[in-house]
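Message: Study each token:
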Amino acid sequence: MTQAAGLRFGNRRMSLRTRVTALAAVLVGSAVALVSLAGYFTVRTSLYDQLDTTLLQRADSLRSTLANAEQLGVIPESFFSAADIRVGLLDGRTGQSFVGGDMSMGLDELAVARGELPQSLRTDRARDLRVAAVPAGPGTALVVAQGLGATRATLARLGLVFALVGGAGVLLAAAAGTAVAQGGLRPVQRLTEATERIARTGDLQPIAISGDDELARLTGSFNSMLSALAESQERQRRLVTDAGHELRTPLTSLRTNLELLAASDRPDAPSLSEQDRKEISDDVRAQVEELSTLVGDIVELAREDAPQVVHEPVELLEVVERALARAARRAPGIHFEVNLMPWSLLGDANALERAVLNLLDNAAKWSPAAATVTVRLAPTGRGTAAVDVADTGPGIAEADLPYIFERFYRSSDARTLPGSGLGLAIVAQVVARHGGTVKVSRRPAGGTLMTLELPGRPST
């Protein structure tokens, strides 16, 4: 396994909460480390600058009193040890030096004694000293040195403090990251548990929402998805239940007729007259046609339930004309009075034709023989066009108007007529999928007016 694959495998095993905690600790630790380093070097530079200033001030004060080596020699050695200071005189002409305390001269001090440098500062790493030199007369330099032990001890303590503070900061950042991860990822955990519960039990109960942040919005969106899924399941359940109920009656009648025909063919059974056999055969044929229509409507309704995105240019006038031609063949005794204006939209031409045909079939079914059904297509002036289908039948009762587009709904007057109660439900779903509306009303002169309104634009 390659190193990259190993890292990817490790990331898959590390939880999001652990990654948030680790990220917070790393970021805070990096920030504390940078601040600590910056503070350490700032203090270090300040301490060394202060030490250099002090050495130069001591050198300035001593060069007026130490004019020669004899004066330096009378200073006891214990003084230098107690004051942690070394003092020396360097002759630039001979290179000879006189030192009080453990100190060695270098090239920088010799350059000051010869007048090549106004002063010098350096670190004697062998003896851990900070050495300063200033002119003390013609060809002479006064050299003052001080040990760096105290300064280094101060810096060591400061580094330890920064390390402890940095470590504490990292621990606090990890604790804070854990708290933030637990609190911030709690909605995600609830979503995960809900998803697992749904997969395990199929229960589509929504999740409680707390707060108003992005995770709350995610929970709300998840609840909306659950509601849509529950509604879809309920529609499917109702469709299966209603379809089973509607199929039971024609299937029972068909089975009874077929059993009667089969029984009449037995040698010991009474024979049926030709008239009775013809009536039973006609009933079987009608029941088969009713079943075919019902199954077709159920399939169409199930297909319309599936979300589809349609982007096909459709000429609504042509759709209505094709539906009129089919309706005229089905109802030859009905006269259709037509007034159509061009209108185009984006949609499904076959679905729209089925919807208009259902309206025409419904109008023809309720109209008396030789009646006139009026069909009109015209713009409404609101960016939509209306397809009006008006019949001269008995009309729809006021109590039935709110339910006329529901699946399998049939009024008491319609139960004696052919039909499945799905035609207008298909119309409502097709229109809704195309962003339109459909409504029904009673005509003042009698009959029913169905209005299908669809968005689009006039055709040129």
